[in-house]
Amino acid sequence: MECQKEKNLQHCNCTYEPCPKKGICCECLKYHLSMRQLPGCCFPSKFEKTYDRSFEHFAKLVIEKVI
Q1: Is residue 1 pLDDT above 90, yes or no?
Q2: Over the chain, what is the mean pLDDT?
Q3: Beta-strand (E) ranges in the chain?
Q4: Phi, psi dihedrals of residue 62, rounded to the nearest 5°
Protein backbone atom coordinates (compact mmCIF):
# COMPACT_ATOMS: atom_id res chain seq x y z
CA MET A 1 0.00 0.00 0.00
CA GLU A 2 1.31 3.43 -0.91
CA CYS A 3 1.57 6.22 1.65
CA GLN A 4 -1.13 8.86 1.21
CA LYS A 5 0.99 11.69 2.57
CA GLU A 6 -1.08 14.53 1.13
CA LYS A 7 -4.30 13.06 2.52
CA ASN A 8 -2.62 12.40 5.89
CA LEU A 9 -1.41 16.01 6.08
CA GLN A 10 -5.03 17.20 6.03
CA HIS A 11 -5.48 15.60 9.47
CA CYS A 12 -2.00 16.15 10.93
CA ASN A 13 -1.99 18.63 13.82
CA CYS A 14 1.76 18.39 14.43
CA THR A 15 3.20 21.88 14.97
CA TYR A 16 6.84 20.78 14.89
CA GLU A 17 7.77 22.46 11.62
CA PRO A 18 11.08 20.81 10.67
CA CYS A 19 9.55 17.33 11.09
CA PRO A 20 10.47 15.11 8.12
CA LYS A 21 7.84 12.53 9.13
CA LYS A 22 4.83 14.84 8.80
CA GLY A 23 2.13 13.05 6.85
CA ILE A 24 4.04 9.77 6.87
CA CYS A 25 2.10 8.23 9.72
CA CYS A 26 3.85 4.86 9.83
CA GLU A 27 7.26 6.52 10.27
CA CYS A 28 5.90 9.03 12.79
CA LEU A 29 4.27 6.33 14.91
CA LYS A 30 7.35 4.10 14.80
CA TYR A 31 9.58 7.01 15.86
CA HIS A 32 7.41 8.17 18.75
CA LEU A 33 6.69 4.69 20.10
CA SER A 34 10.43 3.96 20.18
CA MET A 35 10.78 7.02 22.46
CA ARG A 36 7.85 6.01 24.74
CA GLN A 37 5.69 8.72 23.23
CA LEU A 38 2.55 9.09 21.19
CA PRO A 39 2.45 11.20 18.04
CA GLY A 40 0.94 14.68 18.17
CA CYS A 41 -2.27 13.52 16.49
CA CYS A 42 -3.20 11.65 19.68
CA PHE A 43 -3.45 14.96 21.55
CA PRO A 44 -5.87 17.86 21.22
CA SER A 45 -4.11 20.80 19.54
CA LYS A 46 -3.89 22.74 22.81
CA PHE A 47 -1.78 19.97 24.36
CA GLU A 48 0.11 18.97 21.22
CA LYS A 49 1.74 22.42 21.27
CA THR A 50 3.48 21.58 24.58
CA TYR A 51 5.53 18.91 22.77
CA ASP A 52 5.13 16.66 25.84
CA ARG A 53 4.03 13.53 24.04
CA SER A 54 4.98 11.07 26.74
CA PHE A 55 2.73 8.17 27.70
CA GLU A 56 2.58 9.68 31.19
CA HIS A 57 1.31 13.04 29.92
CA PHE A 58 -1.31 11.29 27.80
CA ALA A 59 -2.44 9.19 30.80
CA LYS A 60 -2.69 12.33 32.96
CA LEU A 61 -4.91 14.00 30.36
CA VAL A 62 -7.13 10.91 30.19
CA ILE A 63 -7.45 10.79 33.99
CA GLU A 64 -8.33 14.52 34.01
CA LYS A 65 -10.88 13.72 31.26
CA VAL A 66 -9.32 16.24 28.88
CA ILE A 67 -9.09 13.59 26.17
Answers
A1: no
A2: 96
A3: none
A4: -65, -45
